[in-house]
Amino acid sequence: MIKYGVIGCGAIHGVHCEALQNIEGAHLVGVFDIVYERAEQTATKFGVTPFKTIQELFAAVDAVTVCVPSGLHAEIGIQAARAGLHVLVEKPIDVTLEKATALVEACEDAGVKFATVSQHRFSDQVRKLHDAAQSGGLGTLLQGDAYIKWYRTQAYYDSGDWRGTWKLDGGGCLINQGVHYIDMIQWIMGGVKSVQAQVRTAAHDIEVEDIANALVEYKNGAIGVIQGSTSFYPGLAERLEVHGRHGSVILEGDKPKLWKVDQVAANEGLYGGGVLMQPTPSLHLHDQEDIVANAASDPTAVWGEQHRLQIEDFTNAIINDGEPFMTDRMALEPLKIIMAIYESSRRGGAKVELA
Ligand SMILES: NC(=O)c1ccc[n+]([C@@H]2O[C@H](COP(=O)([O-])OP(=O)(O)OC[C@H]3O[C@@H](n4cnc5c(N)ncnc54)[C@H](O)[C@@H]3O)[C@@H](O)[C@H]2O)c1
């Protein structure tokens, strides 16, 4: 049984606590927050211990999940790793590559397991699209787009003094909301080579961007678009659109809106690839209500089951001394892309190559 502590008792931590109470092999021992009353509230709700100091929590557990503001992930994760604990941090891994790399290295040096939450990688449809794209099932890949046309009010940004700040949020609509879909599109397409971007703060009183557009070139030669926003009322379901020489797939809110493969071309191995893809049997088309009634407009709407699957995978990696599905360095990729987009925009849309 892996004993867990959850650090940071704000908006997302309840999903972690619930998940931990529904995973065989995991046991939620207690929680810590710098605001003790928050830890107490959570402790009462889940029947666990509210720790008064982080050291007391460290002494009582084998692993932590870190749900504090993004710019504190590395600081707290490194302390936990040095205390010999396995570390799962919320997304993004942290807000600078220096801090994020230091976190990964601290976990490697301490010999503890480390992963960053990217729960949509645990969606069946996202994995199916990844496998289809990477096995050649759509033919040679031509274009991969991520559209994250979400909406957040000014009140959302005002609800926490870290939100919308460079120091602790690390940026705006890309690093906070868009990071999931940037991670997925780069994973599905096989990595990003360069970006040319324009971002701006258009509709909120914040330091960071609330609209971002980037042209992307992938390592395999395909191109695409990353579009993020927290400015577009009412907030649309996010879309991943992938086009290969003999097929196109559109996922909207992780569900297939279009999955069309030219089976003749696929069977004959035309245009690259050649792995036969079965069309998805149940094509699900969202109605208008579905499109707006999710995280696109509601910051508290999180798909708890995908978190449960990722934390379960992480727990199994600890138990079996294996590698988590989301390996320790994977979360550096979306951060590198986001930093390159910011740099490109600062340089007037110049092409920025990723290291
Ligand atoms: N995976 C997802 O879908 C998802 C969704 C929402 C948030 N998140 C991520 O989770 C993290 C937290 O976001 P949130 O919306 O829950 O924030 P929040 O502001 O609601 O909660 C953060 C909590 O951390 C506490 N805290 C701050 N500094 C601390 C410290 N040094 N030690 C202990 N506790 C501390 C605060 O008191 C607060 O209770 C962010 O990194 C965010 O990007 C992920």
Which terms summarize this structure?
single chain, Dihydrodipicolinate Reductase, domain 2, binds nicotinamide-adenine-dinucleotide, Rossmann fold, 2 domains, alpha/beta, 12 helices, six-stranded parallel β-sheet, eight-stranded mixed β-sheet, globular, 355 residues, 14 strands
Average pLDDT value?
92
Count the domains.
Answer: 2
Assembly state of the chains shown: single chain
Count up the helices. 12
Please write the string of helix (H) and strand (E) elements.
Answer: EHEHEHEHEHEHEHHEEEEEEHHHHE
Distance between the termini: 40 Å
Helix content: 25-40%
Strand content: 15-25%
Tell me what you see in this structure:
The protein has 2 domains: 2-119 and 304-327, Rossmann fold, CATH 3.40.50.720; 121-298 and 336-344, 2-Layer Sandwich (Dihydrodipicolinate Reductase, domain 2), CATH 3.30.360.10. A hairpin with a 2-residue loop joins strand 11 and strand 12. Helix content is 35%, strand content 23%. Helix 1 (13-20) packs across helix 11, helix 4 (73-82) packs parallel to helix 5 (97-110) and helix 8 (173-189) packs across helix 12 (332-346). It contains 12 helices and 14 strands. It has an 8-stranded mixed beta sheet. A 6-stranded parallel beta sheet has the order 3-2-1-4-5-6, with helices on both faces. The longest helix is centred in the middle third of the chain and has 17 residues, at 173-189. The protein is globular. The protein has 355 residues and is an alpha/beta fold. Mean pLDDT is 92; it is low at 273-293. It binds nicotinamide-adenine-dinucleotide.
